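pasting input
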Amino acid sequence: MDEATRKTLKSLRRTRTPAEMKSLFKAVRAQSDAVLLAEIAPPKKRPVPKADFATKLAARLAVIQGPASDKADALIGVIEETHGAIDIAAAGLVPVIRRLARRFGEKAVAAATDDLLARLEASGSMRERVT
Amino acid sequence: MAIAAYLSYGAEDSAAARDIARELEAHGLPATLTAVDRAQAILDARCLVALISPGAEADEAAARDLAFAIANGKPIVPVLLKDVSAEGVRPVLDLQNRLDAREGLSNPVLSAIVARVRAFAEAGRTIAMLNIKGGVGKTVLAANVFAAAHLELGKSVCFIDLDPQHNLSQFFLPPEERNRVRADAMTIYSVFIAKGPLSTPRENFARMPVQLNRARGMGKQRFDLVVGDERLFEFTLDGRTERERADALSRFHDLVAQLRAKYDLVVIDVNPCATFLTRCAVTASDHIVAPVRPEKYSLTGLNMLEQVTRQIRGRPLKSSEFSVLLNGVADRPRTRGGYDVDQATREEIAAAPFFGSALLGPAIPYTTHLRTTPIDRYVVNPISLTAMKQFAQRMLKESLASAAIDIIKRAGA
């Protein structure tokens, strides 16, 4: 047995009783290498979901400081100007965008977002400059 | 009900004063006609009804009443009984705002007096955030404590940014929006200027506040700001005449009176040091909140505050007119030279004969969440910049709400 293997075995022994070690050796002898490697393989990374319409729009509104409910409230306010009163509570931004898109269409909601951002740009950011 | 009005008049107008007092009493508004301690009677009343006539103008006691009411932030209802020389009463009363009774105390005039007195009797309270020392957190605490009063207690609040540095306006509004308000002559500077294109007419004062809670479907409870202006420094230097300052003081009192009629709380954020602006704030306030940092320099600022306020008001003060709020207290003991710095400051104030009973139980913890950063981000609802609308921060929010409850109670709001 080479030094590296001995070292690995010693590290396994550190927190285990002789009975537990025997049980481990038995399991290793009974299985093929492929099965053993599969058992200890790290979990596969979950694929990153493709950004949908609502998350993309929410990301654009990240330039607004404040809670998501404020952003949702402002977006609803812009759409209300053209579509009348909307009975959607301003809660999470992404769910609100999804509900707005279902009711008024993605095109209208995207246009309202553009409008909101243009208004904010006109009103200026909170940045103070030294002249 | 507390005393609604104190009547100030010359000897020859005593019959008219009795008629007005009777009318006020008939409408459930108790009024004081005579008092041994006139100063205390004025302090106890919610407003002063001044009967103006040549006789009253010549009456020294009536003149003292007016000066005392102005120095102590008491709203005034001027009733013109006979023509007087405008110069004589101009520094203390705005004759444009008077109720005209030169043709006798007719029913419409009496009704107008009752309406004015009732408005003052039911008006909100005015609170000044003041400490002669700078950097104690006046502005940040004003924004955050009164945001708690608005969001947690449902109070309508209007700030007045009376500091030439206008940090409260910077806290809530982007530079472009402040510049637009300034271009429209709707900042506090336009209240202080009595004439010319930079002046705002008195009848527009109630329209000056900018909305800070812009959530849709908000009810009547407003959270607003009269925007500050760096040009106010003209009134802290020697650039303005006595006459211009007297006009500014009168117009500022009128602004506060109009706002009190609309809001539960009018909160004035004042510059540090003792200047003409300090006089304006102190003479318009019912209550003073003095933030104090746990350090020895703040204690000097507190002592100076008592001296300055006493001099402006021209009378001995009561500690119930103040609230002292410790700001920036650590969440664990901070020892220096064997002393816990926070505890030592608290004990020093608590043991003080005057300010001891003014020290509030709740203290504001030291936290970076009360700091602001000049970053390139936009704001759709300015009240969301306060800690009360930030995620988590439970301990901080509880401290702010507790402080708001105590201050409102002490201010009698």
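fyi The beta strands of chain A are 64-65.
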